[in-house]
Amino acid sequence: MKRILGFAGSNSSKSINSQLVRNILDRFSTDFETTQIDIRDFELPFYGEDLEKEQGIPQRAKDFANEIEKRDALIIAINEHNGSLSAVFKNLIDWVSRHHRGFLTGKKIILVAASPGGSGAASAMAYAKTAFGIFGGEVVATISFPNFYDNFENGEIINTQLEEEVQSKINTFAQQI
């Protein structure tokens, strides 16, 4: 059985990206084991070389890396802050990559980005796609989800075109893992 981990790069308790991850994970058949985690459970001090030298790699960074290591594939939803990843998510990646540079090696990834506006977090998506490759991950599909509040309601995608695109990419992803 293939194992899929899903999470959003947001520390908001009302994260639209977390909602979209849940929707996507729920679509996989029972041939897959799916798990969603909340990065708020892995809160870390801001990365700095001096801090790392003084205190080492925090256990929560190691725990997060372990969650990834246990899975075959990932659904990662990123949120965009000022055209980039959120500071909390970037910080988590910084710590984890110091623990194990290739922490995404061998992982197939669907990269998702929901936004309340029309851009679908395109800038952050482009950055993440490049960065995740540096750490060994293979982004096999991207889903840009613009105008979230107009297209998502009660846990469901209500825009037919977006729904078809999401399901098509999930089907392709499931075949690749």
UniProtKB/TrEMBL annotation:
<dbReference type="GO" id="GO:0016491">
    <property type="term" value="F:oxidoreductase activity"/>
</dbReference>
<dbReference type="GO" id="GO:0010181">
    <property type="term" value="F:FMN binding"/>
</dbReference>
<dbReference type="InterPro" id="IPR029039">
    <property type="entry name" value="Flavoprotein-like_sf"/>
</dbReference>
<dbReference type="InterPro" id="IPR050712">
    <property type="entry name" value="NAD(P)H-dep_reductase"/>
</dbReference>
<dbReference type="Pfam" id="PF03358">
    <property type="entry name" value="FMN_red"/>
</dbReference>
<protein>
    <submittedName>
        <fullName>NADPH-dependent oxidoreductase</fullName>
    </submittedName>
</protein>
<dbReference type="GO" id="GO:0005829">
    <property type="term" value="C:cytosol"/>
</dbReference>
<dbReference type="InterPro" id="IPR005025">
    <property type="entry name" value="FMN_Rdtase-like_dom"/>
</dbReference>
<feature type="domain" description="NADPH-dependent FMN reductase-like">
    <location>
        <begin position="3"/>
        <end position="143"/>
    </location>
</feature>
